[in-house]
Amino acid sequence: MESVRGRIDDKIIRLMIRDLPRHIGRELDHKAIRDYERRALNFHLDLRRPDTLRLHAAGSPGRRPSLE
């Protein structure tokens, strides 16, 4: 956030972080994030978790049969 020219005050900020594991996302400084939300005109933090890699899949692909 320190690298934003002219600081983040009254600006629209969208920060996307990819491949961030959930346990690390929980350890972020949420007090600082709330401060960023307060200072910026609009602040959106988009945390993207890593894609799950499934080695084994159950069932067949496609539509599920109806309950009838």
Class by helix and strand content? alpha+beta
Q: Which regions have little confidence, pLDDT < 50, spanning 5+ residues?
A: none
- Element pattern in H and E: EHHE
The helix tally amounts to 2
Helix content: 10-25%
Shape: elongated
Number of DSSP-assigned strands: 2
SSE blueprint and pairings:
Blueprint: E1 12-17, H1 22-26, H2 30-39, E2 42-47
Parallel strand pairs: 1-2
Structural features:
two-stranded parallel ribbon; 18% strand; alpha+beta; 68 residues; single chain
Structural summary, described in words:
By secondary structure, the chain is of the alpha+beta class. The chain has a domain at 12-47. Helices cover 22% and strands 18% of the residues. It has two helices and two strands, in the order βααβ. The chain has helices at residues 22-26, 30-39, and strands at 12-17, 42-47. The chain has a two-stranded parallel sheet. The radius of gyration is 19 Å and the shape is elongated. The mean pLDDT is 86.
Concise summary:
The chain contains two helices and two strands, in the order E-H-H-E.
